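Morning, I've got a small favour to ask if you have a moment. I've been staring at a protein lately and its backbone has me curious. You're getting the sequence in one-letter code plus the fold written as tokens. I've dropped the whole record in just underneath, so have a look:
=====
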Amino acid sequence: MNNYVNIEPKPGFSRRAFLERSGFGFGAIALSSLIQRTVLGDEAETSAHFPSTAKRVIWLFMEGGPSHLDLVDPKPLLNTLAGQPLPSGFKEPLTAMGEKGSPILPAPRTWKQHGQGGLWASEWMPHIAENMDDIAVIRSCWTNGINHSGGVCQMNTCINVAGRPSLGSWVQYGLGSANQNLPSFVVMCDSAGRPVNGPRNWGSGFMPASHQGVRLNGTSDEPITSLNAPKGYNDDQQQRKLALLQQFNQQHLRTRPQQSELEARIRSYELAFRMQAKAPEAVDLSRESERTQALYGLDQKETATFGRNCLLARRLVERGVRFVQLYSGTGSKWDSHAGIEANHSRLCRSMDKPVGGLLKDLKQRGLLDETLVIWGGEFGRTPMSEKGDGRDHNPTGFSIWMAGGGVKGGQTIGSTDELGLYAVEDKMHVHDIHASILGLLGLDNMALTYDHKGRPERPTINEGRFNKKLIGA
């Protein structure tokens, strides 16, 4: 039975009323979403403000704070002053745990320059180093978040307290979905646990809940659980069950017209219906050649998990997913107040080959030019020691890097002081980082607004600038 024929939207006709009158069949729900998107438009969707160089984002988030001093920002003075107190003239930063007066900790790395640009990288990231001509290292980042909760929150939402939409939500709101059969904003972690702050990191804040990220299970052979119909169910049984569920949802919704979470749930059912046809193919890594799987490290135990996530990310953006965020070290494992040598050595082994493989694979498939890849954590590490063989949080100066999406590779932007403690040249606050990411996507961070309680809210909270050096300007 066709439940959606002759359903004609009228001026002022709400999405909820449209869904309610469009029939109880699950297929009708999905179709109504497509019709409503075409005829009425999506109230949460705008368009790019200027030509973009990137169409999609893969954000590789090293949760816990990787040490820039041991990876991409060499400071020979650390080894010269090892064991000595911080020199006069250097003010100790406000840190979360800080042992005041701690001596300088050496960085016993083997450093090499790579590519035509001569960018430095340590022996801890040899596979990423092979791609340095596609990478721009930003050495002058800083943040207000001094602990993990505030730091991760700010790096995701531009502020170090909860309540605002994540960057992925702003991108989805600003540009809309590039596909109809998969989520637009996806998050995957490298363990079954959760990062600090949990789903708030990819939440939609004061925006409708439909703009929040969707977490997939990156540690399982079935990244999307409960996608297939239960065994023994035929199509007719499933349709009748879903029709009844839709009827209950609409009854519940009539008395709660302002509850965006319920509308988001209804949208998720619509999406789930469409995903049953498309998602199984998208997440089926057996379709990839052995050579490609080996490129990501799926054939090695220590790289298999993050390698799977990186390969899934490539397959998802290839199919129109606009924003993918991958957590490495889920649960602040990059935190290294003690034993940084063992900690960072292990985590670098787990992510370096997958990330290097991702960059190479995107490039050889012609996807890197329009895919912005971001690597970094919520802050860096201090040059001073903690607990004898670790480093504390450093929010005042640290590095991230970007590649693809129009970014000019083979360059460093900004710098820290001679000990790597403070950003001193071309400083980029998290507001600037977000503004630059949005700018590469064609979005003006000051023109992208969402009206909340009579106030125009902006993704970077009325601050931040697009650093045009990223595109060589």
In short: The longest strand covers residues 135-142. DSSP finds twelve helices and 17 strands in the chain. The domain at 46-221+290-471 is CATH 3.40.720.10 (Alkaline Phosphatase, subunit A). Residues 184 and 321 are 5 Å apart (CA to CA).
